[in-house]
Amino acid sequence: MTRILNVQSSPYLEKSASRSVSRAYIDSYVAAQPDAVVVDLDLVARPPAHLGPDHMTGLFKPPPHSPESAAAREVSETYLKQVLDADVILVATPMHNFAISSTVKAWIDYIVIAGRTFRIDEDGKTIGLLPSSKKLVIVVASGGLYPAKGPVWAPDRATSSYIEDVFNFMGVTDVSIIRAEGQIMGSEMAKKRLADARAEAQALADRHSTAGKVAARSQRGRWK
């Protein structure tokens, strides 16, 4: 049984391109694997607090903790369990001023925890602790176009590349990025780019669900 963590952050809600593309991925995956479990984490409905003094104590220092620090640690533990339990982690974000949603950054701050998602060895080398078998799907929606090369390429490193780098750091290397671009460049382009992104998401879900079935059969075979 596959477990998908669906992390959403667009305040556009039902008009959101990133949410629409995410839904195409999830619907296709569940259609292929009806027993898949989807855990929804909507960072707009319940935004995580940005790090403050209580968080620094609760997340990065041993007990005793104040009630406020203990509450921050409890939030972190909830997010960590969701990430650790997931086989597929889908993170969807709009591009806001060349960056990811601030709520996604806040969420990341709760899950990049030494001893839980990474460690540092005696030589100072960082080692990711998340299983490399996890898949990360990043969905980015933007008003403009951000090709792989050209004068607008560098700002886009603040969006999908940042999320990818963070999860690589934690050990996840199977990363797919889907872009729904051109959403303010006229209705025709917006519709076409969104349709293309949804089709890409559906095709990716088909590949992932097929791989998940093969892995499940292989696992079952080990215990026969």
Q: Would you kindly provide a brief summary of this structure?
A:
By secondary structure, the protein is an alpha/beta fold. The chain has 6 helices and 7 strands.
Looking at this protein, list some descriptive labels.
single chain, 224 residues, alpha/beta, Rossmann fold, five-stranded parallel beta sheet, two-stranded antiparallel ribbon, 6 helices, 7 strands, 17% strand, globular
What would you say this structure looks like, in words?
The structure is a single chain. It is built from six helices and seven strands. By secondary structure, the protein is of the alpha/beta class. It has a single domain, classed as Flavodoxin domain (Rossmann fold). The chain has a five-stranded parallel beta sheet with strand order 2-1-3-6-7, with helices on both faces. The two termini are 18 Å apart.
**CATH structural class:** Alpha Beta
Kindly give the count of domains. Answer: 1
Within CATH, the superfamily carries the name Flavodoxin domain
Main β-sheet description: 5 strands, parallel
The number of helices is 6
Name the poorly predicted regions. none
Cα distance spanning the termini: 18 Å
Helix content: 40-55%
Number of strands: 7
Shape designation: globular
Q: Structural class, judged by helices and strands? A: alpha/beta
Widest sheet: strand ordering: 2-1-3-6-7
Q: What would you report as the Rg, rounded to the nearest angstrom?
A: 18 Å
Using the coordinates shown, work out and report the CATH topology.
Answer: Rossmann fold
The arrangement of helices and strands along the chain is: EHEHHEHEEEHEH
Proportion of residues in extended strands: 15-25%
